[in-house]
Design a protein that fits this description.
Helix content is 58%, strand content 16%. The chain is an alpha+beta fold. Helix 2 (22-46) packs antiparallel against helix 3 (54-76).
Length: 225
């Protein structure tokens, strides 16, 4: 009896279907999608950086589902798992991670996908809830303690000294990061930490005699000047 390619394909397909039942696969993918959305929501709520990227949040959802799909395939066939290990070992990711917390969210998505595909659903759910609570508690404490960069343009050295004295009275911590001098213009870049969430003193600073321009922006502590 001659075995055709179609027969081989059908037998292989049926073996794969038996190895990973459709119901189990569907439940795992739906749960990974739900947990990915939960991680996405936590990332959005606890984000403390300067530029929020919604595409990174979508990546967390996709990464959770892709990891689940991959682990389901690996657990169904030992030979396939060895081949995937070899294939994934040559993958290199060169995307720069700007926020240290982003690395934690990436590993969180991968870990949830692995745990769900392994069948430890309570561990994935309750573990993620606990991690989410911890992140929300610590992110909620970030208020006026976060650093800002304050850029001030002055017209002379006397205005520079007056500006420094005024800011030292208003700020909890003040540190000069850079200073640029041009004819008729002095640009000062300060790192400033506020005593409270009130920023009305910036309006007063802008109205001071000799102050040409002021701007204050939030940043994550990595200054490049």
């Amino acid at each position: 009896m001659t075995t055709t390619f179609q027969d081989i394909f059908k037998s292989s397909f049926l073996e794969r279907m038996d190895a990973v039942p459709l119901l189990d696969m569907g439940i795992a993918l739906l749960l990974s999608f739900a947990m990915g959305l939960f991680i996405f929501w936590l990332y959005k709520k606890s984000y403390a950086g300067v530029m929020y990227s919604s595409s990174f949040g979508v990546t967390l959802v996709a990464l959770c589902m892709i990891t689940t799909l991959l682990i389901l395939a690996v657990t169904s066939n030992i030979i396939l798992s060895l081949g995937m290990v070899g294939a994934l070992s040559i993958v290199r990711f060169r995307t720069a991670i700007k926020e240290p917390s982003d690395i934690a969210f990436l590993f969180w998505s991968i870990a949830v996908g692995i745990v769900l595909a392994a069948g430890f659903i309570p561990l994935a759910v309750f573990g993620s809830i606990l991690i989410g609570v911890v992140l929300l508690v610590f992110s909620g404490k970030q208020s006026h303690e976060q650093p800002y960069i304050l850029v001030v343009h002055c017209d002379c050295a006397e205005t520079e000294q007056a500006t420094k004295c005024f800011l030292e009275q208003q700020a909890k911590k003040l540190s000069l990061k850079s200073k640029s001098v041009a004819p008729g213009l002095i640009e000062l870049n300060y790192e400033i930490r506020l005593k409270s969430g009130n920023t009305d003193f910036i309006n007063e600073l802008a109205q001071m005699s000799g102050v040409l321009h002021t701007v204050m922006v939030s940043y994550n502590g990595d200054y490049m000047g």
